[in-house]
Design a protein that fits this description.
The chain has three domains: 13-97, Rossmann fold; 126-186, Dna Ligase, domain 1 (2-Layer Sandwich), CATH 3.30.1490.20; 190-379, D-amino Acid Aminotransferase, Chain A, domain 1 (2-Layer Sandwich), CATH 3.30.470.20. It is 31% helix and 26% strand. It has helices spanning 21-32, 63-72, 85-94, 101-108, 110-119, 136-143, 167-176, 232-248, 283-286, 291-299, 330-334, 365-379, and strands spanning 13-17, 36-41, 54-57, 75-78, 127-130, 147-151, 161-164, 182-186, 190-200, 206-208, 212-217, 220-226, 253-262, 267-273, 313-319, 339-343, 354-361. The longest helix has 17 residues, at 232-248. Magnesium ion (MG) binds at residues 258, 270-271.
């Protein structure tokens, strides 16, 4: 269903499919502006559910629950890309859904995502699909070695990925991934990893947050620093590519895009997230408007807020690992006045689980990074 030509005013009810931390911040941003939010998630105590005005506790593709969302909401959005497509498409017949189910579908499958990016002039790392053993030799010829095999669907935080040094390793990895459809991609010699979060409205207007520089550990985002220490011309390339893709797929909402910069200074598109992005959490404390308020604004048909950076910042992710052998002493973290702690209200800490983050504000990127490293020590003093 098409959105109404006039913006949704505060008081309207917004729908969120997914109850994780991204949904939680959407609820906070929406309620700050006086909107109500209905959240659909199977877990009654999910982070976003805790704060929802309407709790729809059911599977994401439950027909009755989706009907309830259509009745409750003036517009519906998502907080993760793997919302089942069919249900989302049916929902979109009854209520405006932004981003479109088609945009979610693109992000659900690396093959489609990379081919879509290619079609709009972006450059993914050389890649090839592997759907059966017979595809492996040709795929390796396309990508060269070393290469990384990734499941085409349902990967996150580096899960379902194996680095392969030779063709035999690719065969073995494909088998160990149970023969599900995969992509093989060239392993880029990384100089930097960067990302950009943008928002785009129903009217096609785009606003970008500053490019962030990311450090991953074991495939999971560890740190994001803004401003990124990369050439302005590279930042410009990243932003141009991001905008081209958003426009190409007629994206509406907040979109996170990850890029690699290799040791020769070339930019490669990695992937997109049709929602706010972990690397954009710095906007909660360091920009005029945060990425979640932008999501509210975009789905309501409102203008973008300012994306201006107010202060250099490093975001440090807080994973469940910090709870072992004992939970962090939060008082120590909170004693750092410019280390802004966020916890997501998750009942159980598990290794690798994203439990919160700390936005470390300082007067330069270097000192923000140093504060993040100090904060890490405070979390894990052992
Ligand atoms: N082709 C590549 N060359 C070099 N490094 C890579 C490549 N692909 C992935 N990586 C490394 O692995 C990390 C995770 O990869 P990717 O973004 O594909 O994973 P994911 O499971 O979709 O993770 P998430 O959704 O959490 O970002 C990247 O941020 C990068 O550090
Ligand atoms: Mg990624």
């Amino acid at each position: 269903m098409k959105p109404s030509a006039t913006p949704l005013q505060p008081g309207a009810t917004l729908g969120m499919i997914g109850g994780g931390q991204l949904g939680r911040y959407f609820v906070i941003a929406a309620r700050k502006l006086g909107y109500e939010v209905a959240v659909l998630d199977p877990a009654a105590n999910a982070p976003a559910m805790q704060l929802a005005s309407h709790k729809v506790v059911a599977a994401y593709d439950d027909a009755e629950a989706l009907q309830r969302m259509a009745e409750l909401c003036d517009v519906v959005t998502i907080e993760f890309e793997n919302v089942p497509y069919q249900g989302l498409a049916r929902l979109a017949e009854r209520v405006p859904v932004a981003p479109s189910p088609e945009c979610a579908r693109i992000a659900q499958d690396r093959r489609l995502e990379k081919n879509t990016a290619l079609s709009f002039g972006l450059t993914p790392a050389p890649f090839a699909a592997i759907e059966s053993d017979d595809d492996i030799a040709a795929a390796v010829a396309t990508t060269g070695l070393p290469a990384i095999i990734k499941t085409a669907t349902l990967g996150y935080d580096g899960k379902g990925q194996v680095v392969c040094e030779d063709e035999a390793a690719v065969r073995q990895a494909f088998e160990s991934l149970n023969g599900v459809a995969c992509v093989l991609e060239q392993r880029i010699q990384l100089d930097k990893e960067v990302s950009v979060v943008l928002c785009r409205g129903f009217d096609g207007q785009v606003a970008c947050f500053p490019v962030g520089e990311n450090v991953h550990v074991n495939g999971v985002l560890d740190l994001s620093t803004v401003p990124a220490s990369v050439d302005e011309s590279l930042k410009q390339q990243v932003i141009e590519q991001a905008v081209k893709l958003a426009q190409g797929i007629d994206y509406v909402g907040v979109l996170g895009l990850e890029f690699f910069i290799d040791t020769q200074g070339r930019v490669f598109f990695n992937e997109m997230a049709p929602r706010p992005h972990n690397s954009g959490h710095y906007t909660l404390d360091a920009t005029v408007t945060c990425q979640f308020e932008q999501q509210v604004r975009m789905v309501c048909g409102l203008a973008s807020g300012s994306t201006e950076l107010l202060t250099p910042v490093t975001m440090l992710n807080v994973l469940g690992d910090s709870w072992f052998p004992e939970a962090p002493d939060w008082a120590k973290v909170l004693a750092e006045p410019c280390a802004r702690l966020h916890l997501y209200g998750k009942a159980e800490a598990r290794s690798g689980r994203k439990m919160g983050h700390i936005n470390c504000l300082s007067d330069s990127a270097e000192s923000a990074l140093a504060l993040a490293e100090r904060s890490r020590q405070l979390l894990n003093p052992r």
